[in-house]
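Reviewer 2 asked us to include a model.

Predict the structure of this chain.
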Amino acid sequence: MLRPLHLVLIALLLVLQGQLWFGRGSIPDVMRLRQTLKEQKQQNAAAQLANDRLSAELHDLKDGLEMVEERARSEIGMVKPNEVFVQIAK
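Predicted model (structure tokens):
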């Protein structure tokens, strides 16, 4: 005849097996989470690529505007508002 301890151990074993196959952290749940993680990494890589592209474009625009301003100052004497233009004759 089974003792109460054996019944408790068998019940505990059944509960643990149930968690392994059907509960949180079960094998199907882990597989689903791995797939979700893979998809999220792909989305992150695409977003990072777009961010890098936009950052490079922003850098080009900043440098481009600085170069245009420098050229306008030297070639046509551009002066911004609230600036004082001083010309030194040689």
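The mean pLDDT is 86. DSSP finds two helices and no strands in the chain. We have added this to the supplementary material.
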